[in-house]
Design goal:
By secondary structure, the chain is of the alpha+beta class. The chain contains 4 helices and 11 strands; from the N terminus they run αββββαββββαβββα. The mean pLDDT is about 90.
Length: about 190
């Protein structure tokens, strides 16, 4: 799910020289009222920045008080959507993803939220929740591509998901695709 420009950048080996910041995100799986598995995404609020109004997983930048990147992902998930860290069963980490526009290495984690309380949105950062049925995520009919202009490239074709009326591309799409592949291995 990585666009060609991203693949070339990763292969160049120049990322480490850029001294990227660290971030952690949580791919949170939970049952809905009908006991169907959902995965939680958020729509970031519009702001002056490269990730304005984008679909993402809950998460963010590592802060000095965080003991690890996992602690960052758990803290940020609590701050952004109100899920307490002790209510998340962390299943595993996934592949780190480099995000060129903001110069972040992002470590995603997969977590289960077995008995969800209502989500509480952090109004300053989260515009809305996007609750995606796992069956939709696994269905190839929701794979697409779009030509986009981003903060680092103009008119590039990017692989994407079309989920609940939102185009999910970039790092979030790469993470979602890894989740799909992991699930396919066990189903």
């Amino acid at each position: 799910m990585a666009p060609e420009v991203r693949i070339r950048e990763l292969e160049s080996g120049n990322i480490i020289r850029k001294n990227p910041k660290k971030a952690g995100v949580m791919a949170l799986f939970y049952p809905d009222a009908g006991h169907h598995t959902q995965v939680l995404l958020i729509l970031r609020r519009a702001y002056e920045g490269v990730h304005s109004n984008q679909v993402a997983f809950p998460g963010g930048k590592k802060e000095k008080g965080d003991s690890s990147i996992l602690a960052t992902a758990l803290r940020e998930t609590y701050e952004e959507v109100g899920v307490k860290p002790e209510h998340i069963e962390v299943i595993r980490s996934m592949s780190e993803v480099y995000i060129p526009p903001s110069n972040f290495w992002v470590q995603p984690y997969v977590g289960l939220y077995k008995k969800p309380d209502p989500f509480i949105l952090q109004q300053e950062e989260v515009e809305q929740l996007i609750e995606v049925p796992l069956l939709q995520l696994m269905d190839d009919a929701f794979l697409t591509s779009q030509t986009l202009s981003t903060s680092y490239a103009k008119n590039i074709e990017v692989p994407a998901f079309e989920l609940n009326g939102f185009t999910v591309w970039g790092a979030t799409a790469m993470m979602l695709n890894e989740i799909r592949e992991l699930i396919k291995q066990v189903v």
